Structure formats: C-alpha cells, structure tokens
C-alpha cells in the first residue's frame, strides 16, 4: 500500500503549464503528420473505382452473408479475461521502475498482488471459463 | 481495516466454495459463518482488539461512527442471510448460489470503505466496489427479462452517476490540490478557483443522491427494485442505501460549510421532492414490491434529514434509522418472497391462513409507518428531533411537511394491513419452514425491542 | 406503583388473551382482568392515595431527558376509574354477543384500555405520546375487524385523522422539549415552567389543539366520528365514545391549557364559538338521523363540545363541571350504547323508522332506556345535571350570549332523545318488533348498575367534585 500511494504523488512536482508545452507540440506534430500523409496519398494516388475494389477483402474469395451474426459467448469471455489480466499486468511496470525505492515493503505488497492475481486465475480455470469445448 | 480485509477474504472464500461444492445448504452455512467472522472482526476492530493496521496515508480514517455502522450493516446482512439465504440460493436456477454470496461480500467491503473514507478517491472506489456487484445481483435471475432489464438500467444509470461523481471529485481536487476531505479548508481555496469547490461538491452530491435514490435522481429505483429478484431488492434497499447515507454524512460533516445558505435551500427542496415522489406514487401502486420501491424512496427522504441537520443527534438517528428500516424491510421482503402473487390482492386474507406471517408483517409495516413501540418511531423521532435541534422554529415548516408525508405513508402501508386482515381471499404462499418463522419472530422482536429501548443501540455506540 | 399496574395488568392480560381460542375462555379471562383493573383503580383512590403509590419515575432514556414518569392526581384517578369501570361494563353487556376470533377481540379491548390508562397517568410528554398512539392501534384493528359493511374505510378515516393530529402534536412536543432549560426534558413539570413568547404560543398551541380536537372531536374536525361509531361493532363503539374521547378532553386540560396560557386566553373565544357551533349543528343533525347509533354518535359530539367550551371558558365552576361530566358522560353514553346494542341484537335493525312499540314487549328495557335518555338530557336528579349545570355556569360567567346559544342545545337534545325513545318503544308494534322480548339478564343487570350510578352521582356528586377539585385548583392557578 505504501508503494502505490507514493507512486501517485511522485509526479506532482513542478506541475506548471509550461511543462506541458513540449507535449502539446508533439501532439500537434503527430496529428499534423498523419493528416498530411493521408491527405497526400488521397490526392496524389491514382483512383480507379470498380465494384470489386469496394468489396471487403476476403482473400480473393467472394464474401457472402452478414457479418453481424451472434457469436459464441466464449469469445467475449476470453476477450474480457484477456483485458482484465492485461490491465493487471500493467501495474508491474511502475513497480519495476521503482523497484529499489520501494524496497522489501513493496516486494511483499507485489507478492500479495500476485497471489490475489493467481487466485483469480485459479478461479476462472476451475470455473471452466477457459475450456473451449463444451 | 479488519472489515475491508475480512469481507474481501469472505468473498474469495465464497467463490471457491462454489467450486468445491454445489450443495446449497453448505454454501449458505459457509456464508453465514464467514459473515459471523466478519462481524466479530469488525466488532473487535471497533474496540481496538486484534485490529489490523495498514498505513493508508490518511486515505482511510477509521472512526467509531463508521466502524459501528459497519457492525450494524453486517448484523443486518446476517439477519438478511439467515432469513432469506435459502431464497438467495434459488435465484437463477440455483446454479450460482456461491457467487451471489461472494458478490454480497464484495459489496460489503465497498461499504467498509465508504464508511471510513477520508480521500475522495476512496469514496469513488468504495462506491464502485459496492455498486458493481449489485449490477450483477440485479440481473441474477438470468432467464427473467425483467431482471435483465433492471440490471441493464441500473448499470447504465449507475455508470452515468459515476461519471458525475468523478467530475465532481476532479473539480474539488482542482480547487484544493488534494483529495483528503479533512484537509479541505474553504479558506484555503483562492478566489480564482472559488467556484470549482462548491460546484464539485454539488456534483458529488448528485452522484450520492443517485445512490440513495433521492429525487430527482430516483428514476431508476422503481424499475430496478421491481425487476431484480426480491431478495436482492431487500439487500439493496436496506443495507446499501444506508451506506450511501454514511457517505453523505462523512462528506458533509466536513464540507457543507462552503455551501452556506444555499445548501440550506437545496437540501430541503431535495428532501421534499423525495418525500413527495416516494409517498404520492406509492399510493397508486398495486404491486406490493413496487410499492416498497417507492416507499424506500420516501424513507430516503426521511433519512436525508440526518444530512440536513448534521449534528450528533442526526448521527445517532441515522444509526437507529438504519437498523429500524433495514430490519423492517428485510422482514417485509422475506414475507413477500414467500408470496406467489405479490400484488396487493395477493395478500388478501393472509391473516386467516398464515397468522404469523401476517402478524409479523404488520409489525414491520407499523414500524415503517413510525408507530410508537416499534423501532420506526424512534427512527423518525431522532430525525425530526435532530432537525428541530438544528433549526428551531425556522425549520418547523419542513418538519410539518415531513409529518404530513409520514401520515400519507400510513395510507399505503395500511393498505397491506387491510388486505391481510380485513379482506377475504385465498393467498397462495410458498412452503416455509419453522426456521423461517423463527427468524420472522426474531426480526419482529428486534423491532419492538428497539421501539421500547432505542438506547440499546446507542449505548453500544458510546461504549 | 398503582398507575403502572393499571397499565400492566390489561397489557399482560390482553397479550395472553391473544392465545385464547375458545369463546368462553376469552370472555371470562378478559372480564377477570377488567375486574382486577377496577379493583386496582379503586384501591388507588381509597386505600393507597398517597404520593408514593401514585407516582412512579423510572429512568428510560436519560440522555434524552425522558423518563418513564407516571403520576396520578385527582383527574387521573377519576378517568382511570371511568376506564376501569367501562371495560367490565362493556364486557358484561356484550357477554352474549359472538365475535369471530374472540381471543383477538378481547385482547384488542384490553390493549386499548392499557393505552388509555397510560394516557391518563403519563407525566412525561414522550410517554404520553407513546400511549396516545398505542391506544389508537388496537382500536384501529378492533373497529376494522368487527363491525358493519363499510367499517374498513370508516375506521381508516378515523385512523388517518387521529394520526395526522398526533404527528402534529409530536412536532409541538419536540419544539417544547428544546425550549426547556438546561439539558432539555420531556417532563410535564418542565413544560409547565416554560416561558414561551406569545408568538410561539400562538403557533404551537394549534399543533396540540388540532390533535386533541380531532380526538374529542370538535367541529370541524368531527367528520370521522359518526361513520366510525356507526360502522364499528357496538362493543368497540362503547369503548371509543365512552372512554377514548375523554383522552382528548383530558389532554386539553392537562397538556394544552396550562402549557399555553396566553394562547388559550387569546383563542378561547374562537374555540368556544366553534364548540357551540358544533353543538348546535350536531344536535340538529341528530334530530334527522334514522339510525340509533348515529343519533347517539352526534349526541356525543354535542356533549363533548360543551365540555370543550367549558374548558376554554376557564372558570372554576365550569372546570368542576367538566370533571364531573367527563365521568358521567361516560356512564350515560355507555348505557345508551348498551340499550342500542341490545335492541339491534334482538330485532336486527338500527333504523328508527323500522321500530315501534317495543315497550309492550320489553318493558324493563324501555324503563332503563328512558332513564338513560333523561340522563342524556341532563334532567335534575340524574348525574349529568350537575355537570352540565356547572359547565353552563362557567360559560355564563364567560359570555352570556354564547351561553344562551349553548343552552339551545339542551332543548334540541331533549327533542332528539325523546324522539328516539318514542320511536323505539312507543306507538304501534311493527313487524320487526313483534317478536321482541326483554333484553338478556346480563344486559339488564349491567344497566341497573349504571342506573344506580346515575342516580347516586345525580343526588350526591360531592365525592367526584372532591376528588378532582385539587386538580382544578392547581391547573387553573397556572
């Protein structure tokens, strides 16, 4: 707990508007660059509009049917579980960066975190959420 | 800290109980044992025995009031599970009994955070931890369309209010440069940001008002309470709602000074609107469950008096109100759960066929009406007394409005009593066992005991 | 200890009565309890009339300045005696009637009695409020569960009226509580020693008065009463009209006039005029009624109106009259209801237009009813005479014009009472009364007892005045 709390406060120093100037410049540049490139390719590139070209690309095979069909709920389940664990893993990054600063206290806290994490993992396995076949 | 830790552990234990066994009785017993351990852990914590300390850098501030409220909320949950636990295990084809209990435990951990928060971030976390399990519980009856509708509505509206809450917190952070409510001194805010602070506070107020279903943020309540399985409605309408008021009190204990007079105008308007909407609409309901949903709005109006008065008496009052209202509502819903037909006509003639159900139900209804010798009287008593203590003759009009609505509430509560006792009919009741009757009698006994000696609750508070 | 026993005995007796399923058991048990209560009440007047026995002060919620404080002075003794007499009288009178679920019926009666006893002896505002409501709840169930076709609606009207009134009173009590000095207190002494500003008195006076006016009832708050009395079963009606209305009168004397003296003076004219209007109005309505129960109901409003007027006239004689009349009105009204019930039980109707000539078939009942009727008109020698005489005396001292208007009601009372007697008992026999016989032994017995009481206090009212004189002096001095 100590560690996490410190992380929240670490970047509160020198919190003035000027500090954000480079970021602003970068955002403007990034948006400008993308816009320019897309605009240029649209202007410069050749345009031949045929009905085949407007088709969705499906490996050369003519597409058929509607894509909006009910999907098995398993896909969603996997997707949600993936996002969940993915986000949890993100918490390791700040820990890794501040590894020395947080010391043993931080270590035990991250162990606790991993244990909770594992409990959740065991739970979903036991519940059969990852079983693909019924 | 005990309450938070043990409730989370309890939740995890319940999750795995569901994997180990599918026996409903076993699951229910594990839940009861876990809840008793949680209750004891919290009581020990209140008196400083065996309490676990974890440095939270002032984000949580454990005070007796919050911890004692936890005790009451957990005790109410225990009663709830003892009387309705069997029904919980039946919801949704009975496959997810353990998960439901786990979700209830997680919700309780949210309550533990809400009752002790000092940082607005923790308020946010607490409210979310408390609410998210409820979204699932509301939709617990998976094959029932009404339950699904209720769940979706609750979730959408709830997430909307969460957004408002975050906005409010952000504005207050902007004004104060910190999240800790105890450090938020109105004088410290420079004029430049002067408007941000009260604005943020109003947004937070709106978000919490949503949670306690105060008008005009109550629109979700009837549909959600009506659609969700009755047992979960009972849980939501009692323990969760009361926790919302604790969030209110903790926040405005420190903060209401800033709003000054305007606060004294906004809040009475909200209170009157809540009482008006709840009471007047409840009159026209034909379904007892829906009537109880509106009645819970009306009761919220009364509980808001504690926020308005903001003195010690109000704090004591909200504790008594919580107990009185929770016990009575849990009892009414427990009986309702046994009824095949939950419309008013379904209760016709209940007293002839099932005198015990009718008699205890009458006591609960009288308690909600606020008749002396029941806990409900002292709940209302403390609310009114605290308001008069706060404002003297300047708030008499508000109190008069409140009692007029209390009288109106008698109308719809007594309709149920009239149906049970003075109308003839053939009510169909699901089978219930001796244990259920015993618990009903216990609840009624608690109601009457507190109605005679309300101080037994408060003595423990000061002990 | 006496006041506590007066509450406790009917309370416990009532709770036990819930368990009695058998008709005879419930009847005998409740009669026994009622007689024990009567004995306690009498012993409180004649044997244990010292301060120790008549006062009780147990801590209840010390932090809030309220204690379980009971005290009996003369007025309390008189009213508890009336209540204690009333219940056995009712029980004997309805002994032959059959009620569904008798255990619950008699339990309700006894619980109501416990509540009323509490009201009459409470010396703490919160305790008073507690019992005030507690008397209402069993009465509500009694009147809703046993009685006429429209009883549920009529009783609910009664309940809502009273409930609104008592909630308003609750606000008043809270407000006064915060006016008491120091740590605040609900005790009646603290309320008596308040020094309220005039403007406060003018406002909070009404919060209390409306509650009491609904209970009594005073015009224009009386509309619940005829319906409720008509629809409730007669046993309950007796309880309501002979005993429960006295709660309103008692509370006005005990909790209103001494606490708000200036407001009482200020509004007395208004309230007396309202009372007198009510008296005239209800008497006129009573003349036109066809239902015996409604006649008695309206008559009861008129009599209570006179009591209210006499209270607000605030004269020694008038107050003495109120005290005497509270008791005597209870006795007379009980008698009237008992006769009405006996007639209804026999011939199955309450319509005056369907009766006639019953004196030929039931001479003893006719004689008894005539005595009751004369007492209702307040003829000399009957107990009501002295009370009404004193009350009119007080009213004359207050304002002669109003007193004259009030006197008109005596004539009107005579008109409708004698009219009723005539229609029921004299004239030609009709189909309904053809097979009538005299009332049962229990009814006649209890009516004779009442007649003795009527004549006793009609000739020798001194004990009653003596009992309550101290209270009158003490309260009027405030």
From TrEMBL, chain A:
GO terms for molecular function: NADH dehydrogenase (quinone) (non-electrogenic) activity; NADH dehydrogenase (ubiquinone) activity; quinone binding. Keywords: Cell membrane, Membrane, NAD, Quinone, Translocase, Transmembrane, Transmembrane helix, Transport. GO terms for cellular component: NADH dehydrogenase complex; plasma membrane. The chain crosses the membrane at residues 20-44, 75-95, 101-125. It catalyses: a quinone + NADH + 5 H(+)(in) = a quinol + NAD(+) + 4 H(+)(out). InterPro entries: NAD(P)H_OxRDtase_bac/plastid, NADH_UbQ/plastoQ_OxRdtase_su3, NDAH_ubi_oxred_su3_sf. Its EC number is 7.1.1.-. Its main location: membrane. It is an enzyme of class 7 (translocase). NDH-1 is composed of 14 different subunits. Subunits NuoA, H, J, K, L, M, N constitute the membrane sector of the complex. NDH-1 shuttles electrons from NADH, via FMN and iron-sulfur (Fe-S) centers, to quinones in the respiratory chain. The immediate electron acceptor for the enzyme in this species is believed to be a menaquinone. Couples the redox reaction to proton translocation (for every two electrons transferred, four hydrogen ions are translocated across the cytoplasmic membrane), and thus conserves the redox energy in a proton gradient. PANTHER family: NADH-QUINONE OXIDOREDUCTASE SUBUNIT A (PTHR11058:SF22), NADH-UBIQUINONE OXIDOREDUCTASE CHAIN 3 (PTHR11058). HAMAP family: NDH1_NuoA. This is NADH-quinone oxidoreductase subunit A. It comes from Hydrotalea sandarakina. The gene is nuoA.
UniProtKB/TrEMBL annotation, chain B:
One of its GO terms (molecular function) is NADH dehydrogenase (ubiquinone) activity. Its EC number is 7.1.1.-. Pfam families: Proton_antipo_M. Its main location: membrane. It is found in: Cell membrane; Endomembrane system; Membrane. It is an enzyme of class 7 (translocase). The keyword Nucleotide-binding does not apply. NDH-1 is composed of 14 different subunits. Subunits NuoA, H, J, K, L, M, N constitute the membrane sector of the complex. Belongs to the complex I subunit 2 family. This is NADH-quinone oxidoreductase subunit N. It comes from Hydrotalea sandarakina.
Automatic annotation (TrEMBL), chain C:
It is found in: Endomembrane system; Membrane. This is NADH-quinone oxidoreductase subunit M. Signal peptide: none annotated. One of its GO terms (biological process) is ATP synthesis coupled electron transport. InterPro entries: NADH_Q_OxRdtase_chainM/4 (IPR010227), NADH_UbQ_OxRdtase (IPR003918), ND/Mrp_TM (IPR001750). The chain crosses the membrane at residues 6-22, 29-48, 68-93, 105-123, 129-146, 158-178, 203-224, 236-257, 263-283, 295-314, 326-344, 365-386, 398-418, 439-460. It is a multi-pass membrane protein. Keywords: Membrane, Transmembrane, Transmembrane helix. GO terms for cellular component: endomembrane system; membrane. GO terms for molecular function: NADH dehydrogenase (ubiquinone) activity; NADH dehydrogenase activity; ubiquinone binding. Residues 122-413 form the NADH:quinone oxidoreductase/Mrp antiporter transmembrane domain. It holds the Pfam family Proton_antipo_M. The keyword Membrane applies. Belongs to the complex I subunit 4 family.
